[in-house]
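Consortium newsletter contribution from the modelling node. Members have asked for a concrete example of what our holo predictions look like. Here is one, prepared for the zinc ion complex that several groups have been discussing at recent meetings.
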Amino acid sequence: MKRTGGCQCGEVRYACTDEKFELYVCHCTTCRAQSSSAFGISYIVPATSLQITQGTPHYYEVTTDSGNRKSGAFCPTCGVRLWHMSGTEDAYRSIKGGSLDEPLDLSKAIHIWVSSKLDGVIIPDGCRQFPKEPD
Ligand SMILES: [Zn+2]
Ligand SMILES: [Zn+2]
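And here is the predicted structure:
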């Protein structure tokens, strides 16, 4: 089974496995700035499962709240961020959840960096949550 996704204008398209490694909602200030929204959604898949099926993304380097460097793939035309990786050696790709065609179910997502969550964002009962990165 595959999932598919892409940017807002449709120039860059990708496919990946639907067997995610993990699903995170991240409330860190970096994800907020990157998404221009309340939080980031990270759908983590093995790097080997991600295939670019159309277009050529560009890459932008950022430093995260935990001090790591990571690279973000984005569409050069509409600017939408599609996935992140910690260098080309990274075994995983962190796909930005809103770029997937089929909506994700966030009811069991793991919430991280809750210490910097915006007031008024409600985490569903039973979701695992961490003040910063998980241990
Ligand atoms: Zn685009
Ligand atoms: Zn984050």
